[in-house]
Amino acid sequence: MSDSDPLLKYTESRWNFSVIDILEHYGWYLLILVCIIIYVYRQMRPSLDKFLKDKADREYSAHYHKNPDIAAARIAAQQTVTQRLQDKYKQDATEYQRKMEEKDAKKREEWLTRHTAPSGHKLGNGSSSNKEEQNSLRPEYNPLMGDSSRSYRPQRKSPCSGGGCGKK
């Protein structure tokens, strides 16, 4: 047989498929098949999970039914863990309560020191702080008179806030 034999070329090309050829010829079929598989999987998942859980429960009960000592030891271990967690919770709760009481006592003490201590200044006291304040101000400054460098200028009343109405 020679290389130009059409039967040989046909059989070689028939069995020599690439992935691209398969996708070109069967792409839509593969896509539909994947969609169907995903749909069926999502529909069957809850029942499959329930079946596996029931199976595990049956195996668990059969194992502990045969040997009740293991079941009693497991229950005792669960109770000790639960008791340990409960003790830790109570300890944390009492510690938190103690901290809150300390915080409240500190707040109460601060409030009492603020409100019972004399505060404020008497007029005409003549303390040095008043003199320092008076020296830091300009002698001609009077807060009731206003400042000569600042003056109030009202805004212009224009229909255009940007001032660009009709101006070119």
Automatic annotation (TrEMBL):
Q: What name has this protein been given in UniProt? A: Selenoprotein S
Report the membrane topology from the UniProt record: Single-pass membrane protein
Look up keyword Transmembrane helix and say if it applies: yes
Q: Tell me the keywords, alphabetical order.
A: Cytoplasm, Endoplasmic reticulum, Membrane, Selenocysteine, Transmembrane, Transmembrane helix
Q: Where in the cell is it found?
A: Cytoplasm; Endoplasmic reticulum membrane
Q: Please name the source species.
A: Ignelater luminosus
Task: Provide GO CC annotations from the record.
Answer: Derlin-1 retrotranslocation complex; Derlin-1-VIMP complex
The ranges of region (Disordered) come to 86-168
State the similarity comment. Belongs to the selenoprotein S family.
One annotated GO biological process: endoplasmic reticulum unfolded protein response
Which domain of life does the UniProt lineage start with?
Answer: Eukaryota
Record-annotated membrane-spanning stretches: 26-42
Compositionally biased intervals (Basic and acidic residues) = 86-113
Assign the protein's first listed, main location to one coarse class: cytoplasm
